[in-house]
Amino acid sequence: MIEHARQCLEAESSADPQTLRNASGAELLPLLYARAGAAIACGAEGVPMLVREIRHVEAAVVNLETYGGHETVLCEGHTLLERFAALAEHARTVEGILRLPRSTPQAPCG
After folding, report:
1. In sequence order, which residues have a C-beta less than 8 Å from that of residue 39 and are 6 or more positions away?
2. Which helix (H) or strand (E) holds 97?
3. What pTM was estimated for this model as a whole?
């Protein structure tokens, strides 16, 4: 979804590259790739995100709507935002990180 948002914005907007990265959520990709690798290695159920990072996903979805993103990708973006909202009901924030209760035992990392 983030990559599609970046492509749509680059094609349709004359904004500077940093603005496009922020508006599409692209600055999250390197962080999330690294976290996803660590989460998989540790047997985690999901990828940890900072509360402030969710705004980048929200921006990507809004900008996909504005710049005519593919309907399927836009639907996936809204589904992701709905999942964030549902998870937030059961989460607590610890030092800016959403912490979810463990639903299943996880393998120790390391």
Report:
1. 46, 47, 48
2. strand 97-99
3. 0.67
Q: Find the Cα–Cα–Cα–Cα dihedral 4, 7, 96, 107, rounded to 10°.
A: 50
Rg of the chain taking only CA atoms, in angstroms: 15
pLDDT in tens, the chain (110 residues): 788 888 888 888 888 888 888 888 888 888 888 888 888 898 887 777 777 888 888 888 888 888 888 888 888 888 888 888 887 777 777 777 767 666 544 445 55
Strand partners, 94: 97
Task: Please list, in sequence order, all residues whose beta carbon lies within 8 angstroms of the beta carbon of residue 108, skipping any fewer than 6 positions away.
Answer: 42, 43
